[in-house]
Amino acid sequence: MAFFRKKRLFLLLIGIIVLVALIGYSLRDREELSTAEQFINDTVGWAQRAIHTPINYISTIFSNIDDMRNTYSENQLLREKLAEYKSLIYEVQEIKEENEELREIVDKMDSIRDYNPIHATVTARSPERWVEQVTINKGSQAGVKVNMAVITADGMVGKIQSTSQFTSTVQLLTGFDQFNRISATVSREDGNDIFGLIEEYDKESDSLLFKIIEESEQDLEEGELVVSSGMGGVFPAGLVIGKVKEVIPDQYGLTRTALVEPAADLYEIDNVIVVDRILPGEEEEEGEQ
């Protein structure tokens, strides 16, 4: 038994020595590997590829998903920023337009200072009577009275129809009829002025009807300016009403009616001026019918 134990111990020592020798041999720098080493290296390399290829593929997929999420988040943020910038640009444009309108209103008020102009803002517009009247934020407490002219920086828009203490209703030119006439004239440098009445608003032609009541050898021309004459006592003279678009004689050739395009935008009104019908100190004249 002792012999066999010694033999096993001897074989174990021999095996250890051979293993150490093989390890030392394999660790040396060599250009060629043994068949066993090549087999082991190939096997290990194949196993590594078999394991790492799907792992790398899955990692790439998750990486792409993360990139897509990041890209989506960035695009969403950019869209929100773009919407904010567009909104800001729109607000700035609105402010610029409002400031420009207010500057024009101030300039207009300076030019008619003698008529005690009252600046007002449109606060309401009825959907049922959108083209006929608006409500402004000045009333009798501010000196507003019925039949006072209402204008913008561009021209006349209507007259005061009714007042309360703090608000007033404005009848627009688009709501005028034959019972709400305006004495008007086409002024000329040669003194051959043409007088008439703005009788009503014609929806079909989107124009005011200017009926000429005084015969004149001269014809009205397209583009001539029509202003209030002040002869009726309701409106002061010189308020711009509009420009002549076309002149239409009646079928008998006895009277002429001109289509007048309003100078002011009657569909988009924000700031207005209420103009007193007389100069301070003058007696009120009878109103127009």
From TrEMBL:
The keyword Glycosyltransferase does not apply. The keyword Nucleotide-binding does not apply. Residues 122-275 form the Rod shape-determining protein MreC beta-barrel core domain. Residues 78-112 form a coiled coil. GO terms for biological process: regulation of cell shape. GO terms for cellular component: plasma membrane. Belongs to the MreC family. Involved in formation and maintenance of cell shape. This is Cell shape-determining protein MreC. The lineage of its organism: Bacteria, Bacillati, Bacillota, Bacilli, Bacillales.
